[in-house]
Amino acid sequence: MTTKEQRLASLQRAHFNLFQIPATDVIIDLLTDSGTGAMSSEQWAGIMRGDESYAGATSYYRFLDQLEKLTGMRNILPTHQGRASERLLVEVLIGSPADGNGMIVPNNAHFDTTRANIEHSGAEAIDLLTDEGARSETIAPFKGDLDVAKLVRLLNERADDVPFVMVTVTCNSNGGQPVSLANLKQVREICDAYGKLLFLDACRFAENAWFIKTREPGQASKSVPRIVREMFDLADGATISAKKDGLVNIGGVLLIRDDAKFASASNLLILTEGFVTYGGLAGRDLEAMAIGFEEVMHEDYLRYRIRSTEYLGEKLTEGGIAIVQPPGGHAVYIDASALLPHIPPHEFPGQALACALYEQGGIRTCEIGSVMMGEHAVMQLVRLAIPRRTYTQSHIDYVIEVALEVKQFADTLKGFRIVEEPEALRHFTAKFEPL
Ligand code: F0G
């Protein structure tokens, strides 16, 4: 536990950037759901059984079997996390920096690392959310859907410039909103019509499948693994950060159906990550992933997971705090512009709210707005991401109390200006000054 005075001092030392605060100074850590979950007893047992052979470890084959069962794909590479898979995919499908000049990669909404990897190649990353998906207050079942009319328009104008199409499930940038199976099928048909490859950014595939099962007409009787399989069957490959629905603290996956492209990715993997049967991980990590990718599809787990996020969203809404509706799978996103209407986007209302939640109650959250997304930000959000299998209802009740306290004095909060920032992914290291 820390006092308010200690937390203010910590904020000042961190130049008001919550990524720079030591975890010991945080009481409830909702910065991210990435790699912050608790592994199960089975996974820890798997860690003990891990085979550390350099090539062809038994843990690698367990990992392969599970991923093949899950996705139906044969060409599978382990990587150390999602962005390593993204970097390899971009290098194989676009090329080295500058090779992507003039190219564009459409997505429902790119996550920041995906965007940064694509832009590093010189290509442009374009978000094609539906208008409904870009509004926080509208309640709709699949606000992560890619706007197919916008995709067709883009392809009619610039098909030659599009190396591949991506869809992010669930869509992190607009509130952890799911994508429907019907939408994925439409995107697939359009990609076929224009001869384009379709890749999933599938970090939260199981949460997305649960939303399909519980919200999409005609899907309720299907098992979660069957829906997951139908999602992957529509794609030419996928990047996955296993730190989310792989239920592990570190790990990633790259899947590419095309044999020649897969061979190129394998060679690049050896260059920087390690041999193809471990991809920058220890054998025990592959063992934990094999188990996590199975456990995450258990319906009891998914019901509890989605319901507990929904509980936080309901209580904040009841208390008069506007959130992206409906609550997402892995997080609740507070609409900072609605709570702090007196702070304009260029003064970073999300950063102001995130700092206030930390100072008031030691809760660390993450700005997803103009700090993280720059001019691509469509909303000014603060994400309360829920680590998997980690916090209890009483922890979440404390978060709700603190948020409601902050609401009481929200009109006195001030914005920020950036005094120092790097070229890309500035939210990790930028320094801020209160206005
Ligand atoms: N794609 C999505 C949709 C993500 O949410 C993330 C990570 C990545 C790719 C990259 O994966 O971190 O393993 O390299 N999101 C984390 C978050 C960091 O906090 O949302 P990674």
Description:
With 435 residues, the chain is of the alpha/beta class. It is built from 16 helices and 14 strands. It has two domains: 4-30 and 298-434, Aspartate Aminotransferase, domain 1 (Alpha-Beta Complex), CATH 3.90.1150.10; 41-295, 3-Layer(aba) Sandwich (Aspartate Aminotransferase, domain 2), CATH 3.40.640. The protein has helices spanning 4-13, 41-49, 58-71, 82-93, 112-120, 148-158, 181-194, 205-215, 224-233, 259-272, 283-295, 299-318, 336-339, 349-361, 370-373, 393-408; strands at 28-29, 76-79, 104-107, 124-127, 164-168, 197-201, 237-241, 252-256, 331-335, 363-364, 366-368, 381-385, 416-420, 431-434. A five-stranded mixed β-sheet has the order 2-8-7-6-5, with helices on both faces. A three-stranded antiparallel β-sheet has the order 9-12-11. The chain has a two-stranded parallel sheet with strand order 1-10. The chain binds ligand F0G. Ligand F0G is lined by residues 32, 34, 81-83, 111, 113-114, 168, 172, 201, 203, 241, 243, 252. Ligand F0G binds at residues 32, 34, 81-83, 111, 113-114, 168, 172, 201, 203, 241, 243, 252.
